[in-house]
Amino acid sequence: MNTFVVVDFETTGNRPKEGDKIIQIGTVLIRNGKIAERFSTLVNPQTEIPPFIENLTGITNDMVVHAPMIEEVLPPLLKMLDGAVFVAHNVFFDLAFLQNALQEAGYHPFTGPLIDTVELSRLLLPRQEGYRLSDLSVSLDIMHEHPHQADSDAEATAHILLHLLEKLRNLPLVTIQHLQRLSRLFHSDIQMLLSDIEHQKVREGTYEPGTDLEVIHQICLKKRKAIKQESGRSLEQAIDFDGFADGLFGEQGLLKKCMPGFELRPAQVAMMKQVYESFASGRHLMVEAGTGTGKSLAYLIPAVFWAKQQEEVVVVSTHTIQLQEQMYTRDLPILQAIFGDDAPRISILKGRNNYLCLRKFSHSLQEEQDNYDIQLSKSQMLVWLTETETGDVEEISLPSGGQVYWKQVQSDAGSCLNRQCPWFSRCYYHHARRKAQQAEVIVTNHSLLFTDMNSEHRIVPSYKYAVIDEAHHFDDVASRHLGDTISSYQLEGMLHHLHPDRGVGLLEEVEEAVRAWSIADYEESKHLIEAAYQQIREGKETIREMYNLLYQWSHQRAKESEEIGHTVLRYKQEHLTSRWGRAVVSAVRNSVDLLLAIGKRLEAIYANIQSDDAPIGMKGLLTDLNGAVQDCLEYAELLHHMLLTEDEEHVYWIELDTRTTRKTIYLHRVPIDVSSTLRERFFNKKESVILTSATLSVNSSFAYATERFGLADLLAENKVSTIVLSSPFNYKQQMLVCIPSEVPNIKGSSEEQFIRALIDSLARVAVATKGRMLVLFTSYAMLRGVYEHLKERLKEANITVLGHGVDSGSRSKLTKQFRSLEACVLLGTSSFWEGVDIPGDDLSCLAIVRLPFVPPNHPLVEARNQQLEQQNKNAFMQLSVPQALIRFKQGFGRLVRTGTDRGVVLIYDRRVIDARYGRLFLQSLPETNVIVKPTEDLLPEISDWLARTKSAERNSKEEATEPKQWG
């Protein structure tokens, strides 16, 4: 395989069998690793090119009128393809058009080998975030000047192919051999390519991996850097932090040197000093720091200073793993530049399931599985293992089925052999733990903090000082982790893992290992295993029946959840006294009894086989078997607590996933109030905790947050400080807030009337803003009601409409697509209210459809409301309004992300001006311009505002000599 023809077709559509035609061809011939020839031409399709395709490609009907017909172009193309490999980005799209053209022109179909550069990229670039041609061109630094033009696309694809071929040739032989075997199910002829490279390496005698790689148990891994054991220099006790901080911010300060264009922000300096003072005085601190304050450095610098000066460990916790990664990659280099020779040892620590278990992965490589996603995932991991030092799943872009496969090979406590494991010296999880034990600052996430709390602090090294970022989520994460959740696929998956309907499960492997080991009481073990098979088959049927009954019982009663495609139903024991309820209870009891019986049977098998003399492979299986025993007992206990008992401190509900035909059910048991637990088990155990967020206060008061976190008493005792630091942005100059007055108050009109008026206003504003609009909904049903009608209205204006849960369920995928389109309106639900960062010109308009009140019938909200009412408190004003205000501020913050961002906010919920509590929402916003007018009158104001801000932006760009950095 040394001759490749890279092909790209631009077409009138994507259905060649239904009349869509080729309008442009671009080809690049690669021979012996070099570009040898190029060929491109327009093609007369003898049909109209749709306006959308004209806009996308820039190819108009006039341009192809005198172009050659496809019949004239095929001969030189076929000559090029003779004896070559047909290559394209998404090869089967281009192949379908080629085959159709060949058939219509009377030629035989193309039967040569195919390479899909999407598939090859997924294999060889497993850490890549996206595999579109534009994504790959950017990440590989390949020039791609004219996307959606065949010659430019073919050229970019050719350079991508050359890069991939080079990488493939540099992979070690042992990895190539694994890949060659696994690629049998690949869609394009990558197996043939791998076979060629394998033979070439064998001929050349290239057996050894590179110097930065090592082969262990026939798997090639990247060599690991040793963990530095030295403690590092401590800062002198006498060094004054205020003086140190002032030195950072001066004209000759370190921040100016390591961050070109850095600007002094008094709020950042104030926060930095306040954080250090809180550590020094042993007080807790709550800081609301507006967008642009630079709060990450404002807490990281004093945290590092304190850790080094006092030789203490400081834990920094973020809400998500993505934020952990962002902090580690963005802020760590700055800290290293600031502290120089005193640079801190910072470790990132995640939950155990984020790390690959090499023992499980090695074992799974020996299993033949007829599943494309699993085989691709295994192949990606083999390549990734030659690159990763962490084994962290966040580094790898697995296909959808790969997420399921990951659960089979992830690290977990129940199946860990610890020091007896042949892979222990290279264990990624234990390496992360060792690094954390040597670290001065540990970056983790809220979920792991509570997992650590539940495990009696056996995960995170001991610490007395902590920073909680995105703290407005802290108590919600606590509720989830201090409660319990069990799903139907967890139970079914556990039993399937033990003994699948088809194929080999854990028990089959145990049986085979027992037979091969030839232990004396093999017959007794075999008898126990066969009895377990029967019990597991019964267990599957019983649990399936239980979940079917639960689904039928709850389906009609359940209400729509905030999460797309989910419905929820709160239940109590009294709801299970009907005839149907009693049938559910009976099925649950049967399931609990069977799980206990299966656990007991597995325990007997384990006891019968367990031996200190067992070979290492058997020890691994025994550890997995013991883990399965614990799983059975834990699931039985969970089912019992969730459906057969009840206590007043918890709320119980069923959640149904209705998006697919597979009826997935989640059972939740969550504490109604976690404030006392947080106080007793977290805050009272620490010397100083810093809680920070852009949205922590409600109208400059921390009363709501202190109640949620259990800090009200400590605040009264003066053991907690609070501070609000405003954003440095000039919202009066950067933002215009508009309230379309003709849109009816949803409380006084039908939803149909409201949606009709909403669509009309959104469509007119979207034309004025040329798309670039994010619309935030609180209801997926309402988003669906708007989507099709708005899409139709904006069709003529060539403005694309994307809907969350309609076009894709992935927030990141939709956000990327939105940014790549010139004119687009993105409709988002719950997850879009925060964590979406679209700075600059990509977003000019933010629309808030309704105030983001959590549905009062959500089980946890309902239970908390009832608890407050029993205490003679106003649940609406003390819970619902503060929650909505914090979320409203989060949504509002999506528009202005930098000091140069400008745009328009539309608020369609008239309660902000009609309801008594509505003024609280407008008061919660920074000082800005607010206009209340009909959309008709708002349009010229919006157009004028955007035109003026564009002019101001151009002027500021001309004046600026270097970009501003906000830390």
From TrEMBL:
Please report the stretch or stretches of sequence annotated as the Helicase ATP-binding domain.
Answer: 254-518
Positions contributing to ATP binding: 289-296
What's this protein's function?
A: 3'-5' exonuclease.
Q: Tell me which species this is from.
A: Aneurinibacillus thermoaerophilus
Q: Which UniProt keywords apply?
A: 4Fe-4S, ATP-binding, DNA damage, DNA repair, Exonuclease, Helicase, Hydrolase, Iron, Iron-sulfur, Metal-binding, Nuclease, Nucleotide-binding
Q: What is catalyzed by this enzyme?
A: ATP + H2O = ADP + phosphate + H(+)
Q: Which cofactor does it need?
A: [4Fe-4S] cluster
Record's protein name: 3'-5' exonuclease DinG
The short motif DEAH box is annotated over: 469-472
Q: Which GO terms describe its molecular function?
A: 3'-5' exonuclease activity; 4 iron, 4 sulfur cluster binding; 5'-3' DNA helicase activity; ATP binding; DNA binding; DNA-directed DNA polymerase activity; hydrolase activity, acting on acid anhydrides, in phosphorus-containing anhydrides
User: Highest taxon of the source?
Assistant: Bacteria
Give the gene name.
dinG
Q: Name one Pfam family in it.
A: Helicase_C_2
